[in-house]
């Protein structure tokens, strides 16, 4: 099956086409055929498409909305110049998988999208007002473009965390607000944490039951997850992705009274303060320079910038605190796994997060750590480290494609 995987933002659309089926999943032989990104939908859009083994196609075009963007993709996909084996027309796309941010309490697994599911997702808009409407735009557009005969599947960022126990997902506020408004920790990046746990099982030959690990998805958005017996039992992001670790532009955990205090001091509205906490805080807010880890490292190397260093120190310190906290929550872990842009590419960050954790028996091998970059997968701890530390490059699109395939074929989604 050729699965079109879509990740729609309010003005962006990321896609991949992945060839997969149950046999290919079993053999781990599913294959990416092409990928692409369209940004600035609604004005002169920026387009970058890439077929494996060929140089990228880059262009701009006035794309009014997600539907027009999808038509543009299909035209490119099926053109003679693009020539992707097995893709000649619209009929060669057999199913569509949508990355969907918020499944609320209803969607605990990936599901085939029908009218009832769409209504459920619309009901969740108030939980994720930034993300869910954008995901829905992609679903409406794909329905119109592909018609009802092409199955569509929703894969939710929150689903993997639906196994968290009450004591982890409830906040210490009056219980009635959970009952009335479903205010609780949902957690995000679930697709990534789930993929990392799956790769860990493949690398070690362990069963799901034996999988007791701490996964660290460290990208521009960042979260940690405590995985016990293969299930998420706690994670750092909460009711929204703002909670938890310090991130590229998000503040992570703060005392909630800061919001009210800042509103008074700055004469700011609640929206303005949340804009500060979401878009102007974190690594960007502390360094005053950038939210990009690579640029920070350059600043430190070239100018010994103190606040750039402070931003990295804080980023790592907060990760380390959660490692300790999840060790306690799980009565110890069998491994720590780093992933995503920073986790896969910044050895100094990994080293700092794991420094002075001999107490837990964690020791990083500097040489292995320095080598494990740019998509490499493997162990970065010393042979005598009591707890092995891994770098595992994430692949959320693969999970989306496989779930789509399984849901369409009525195979169990695991
Ligand atoms: P993601 O959100 O997973 O795409 O990750 C984006 C983050 O990864 C940004 O902060 C990037 O600066 C960071 N990143 C990517 N490559 C590197 C690298 N070689 N060294 C340090 N950070 C990197």
Structure characterization notes:
The chain contains 16 helices and 14 strands. The chain is α/β, with parallel strands linked by helices. β10 and β11 form a beta hairpin. The strands form 2 sheets. The protein has an 8-stranded mixed sheet. It has a 6-stranded mixed sheet with strand order 11-10-9-12-14-13, sandwiched between helices. The chain folds into 2 domains: 155 residues, Nucleotidyltransferase, domain 5 (2-Layer Sandwich), CATH 3.30.420.40; 186 residues, Nucleotidyltransferase, domain 5 (2-Layer Sandwich). The structure holds adenosine monophosphate. Adenosine monophosphate binds next to α11 and α13.
Principal-axis shape: globular
In terms of DSSP E residues, the strand content is: 15-25%
The percent of residues in helical segments reads 25-40%
Poorly predicted ranges (pLDDT <50, ≥5 residues)?
Answer: none
Q: Which terms summarize this structure?
A:
414 residues; single chain; globular; six-stranded mixed beta sheet; 14 strands; binds adenosine monophosphate
Question: How would you summarize what this structure contains?
Answer:
This protein has helices spanning 22-27, 66-77, 115-123, 132-146, 166-169, 175-181, 190-204, 257-266, 270-279, 282-287, 293-303, 306-330, 340-345, 347-354, 366-371, 396-408, and strands at 2-8, 13-19, 31-39, 44-51, 57-62, 95-100, 111-112, 152-156, 213-218, 222-228, 231-235, 335-339, 378-379, 389-391. With 414 residues, the protein is an alpha/beta fold.
């Amino acid at each position: 099956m050729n699965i079109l995987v879509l990740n729609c933002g309010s003005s962006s659309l990321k896609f991949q086409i992945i060839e997969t089926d149950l046999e290919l999943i079993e053999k781990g032989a599913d294959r990416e055929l092409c990928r692409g990104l369209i940004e600035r939908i609604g004005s002169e859009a920026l387009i970058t498409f890439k077929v494996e083994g060929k140089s990228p196609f880059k262009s701009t075009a006035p794309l009014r909305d997600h539907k027009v963007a999808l038509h543009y993709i299909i035209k490119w996909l099926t053109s003679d110049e693009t020539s992707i084996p097995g893709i000649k027309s619209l009929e060669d796309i057999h199913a569509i998988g949508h990355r969907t941010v918020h499944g609320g309490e209803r969607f605990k697994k990936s599901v085939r999208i029908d009218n009832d599911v769409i209504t459920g997702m619309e009901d969740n808009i108030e939980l994720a007002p930034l993300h869910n409407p954008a995901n829905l735009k992609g679903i409406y557009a794909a329905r119109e473009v592909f018609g009802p005969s092409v199955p569509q599947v929703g894969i939710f960022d929150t689903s993997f965390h639906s196994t968290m126990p009450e004591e982890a997902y409830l906040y210490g506020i009056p219980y009635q607000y959970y009952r009335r408004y479903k205010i609780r920790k949902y957690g995000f990046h679930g697709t990534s944490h789930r993929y990392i746990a799956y790769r860990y099982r493949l690398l070690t030959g362990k069963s799901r039951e034996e999988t007791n690990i701490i996964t660290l998805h460290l990208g521009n958005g960042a979260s940690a997850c405590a995985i016990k017996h293969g299930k998420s039992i706690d994670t750092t992001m909460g009711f929204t992705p703002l909670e938890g670790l310090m991130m590229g532009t998000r503040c992570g955990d703060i005392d909630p009274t800061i919001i009210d205090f800042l509103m008074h001091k700055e004469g700011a509205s609640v929206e303005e303060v949340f804009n500060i906490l979401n878009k102007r805080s974190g690594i960007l807010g502390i360094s005053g320079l950038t939210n990009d880890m690579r640029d920070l490292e350059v600043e430190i190397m070239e100018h010994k910038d103190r606040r750039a260093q402070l931003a990295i120190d804080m980023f790592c310190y907060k990760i380390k605190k959660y490692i300790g906290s999840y060790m306690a929550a799980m009565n110890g872990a069998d491994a720590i796994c780093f992933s995503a842009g920073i986790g896969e590419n910044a050895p100094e960050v990994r080293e700092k997060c794991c420094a002075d954790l001999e107490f837990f028996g964690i020791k990083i091998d500097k040489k292995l750590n320095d080598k494990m970059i740019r998509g490499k997968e493997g162990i970065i701890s010393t042979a005598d480290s009591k707890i092995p530390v891994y770098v595992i490059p994430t692949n959320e699109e693969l999970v989306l494609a496989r779930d789509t395939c399984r849901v369409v074929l009525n195979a169990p989604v695991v």
